[in-house]
Amino acid sequence: MNTILGLIVLALDIIAIVDCAKSGVSTGKKVLWIILILVLPLIGMILYFLVGKKKAA
């Protein structure tokens, strides 16, 4: 069960990183968001989709 949850979080992190890389924000903000997602996988991904994605739009 833990393996499945880990794979789900990994897949969602990859989606968040790709979405962040394709966004129109500055390179510095992209790098900060990607580092946050990599360092704090679950929390970083959630924060990106709740806070960062709205600012990128």
What does this structure look like?
The chain has helices at residues 2-22, 27-39, 41-56. By secondary structure, the chain is mostly helical. The protein has one domain (2-56). The chain is elongated.
Q: Summarize this, please?
A:
Helix content is 88%, strand content 0%. It has 57 residues and is an all-alpha fold.
Total DSSP E strands: 0
Taken as a percent bin, the fraction of beta residues is: under 5%
What's the structural domain tally? 1
| Separate helix tally | 3
Profile the largest sheet: none
The structural class is mainly alpha
Rounded average pLDDT: 90
Helix content: over 70%
Poorly predicted regions: none
Q: Kindly, what is the distance between the CA atoms of the first and last residues, rounded to a whole number of angstroms?
A: 35 Å
Protein topology:
Layout: H1 2-22, H2 27-39, H3 41-56
Helix pairs in contact: 1-2, 1-3, 2-3
Key words describing this protein structure:
mainly alpha; 3 helices
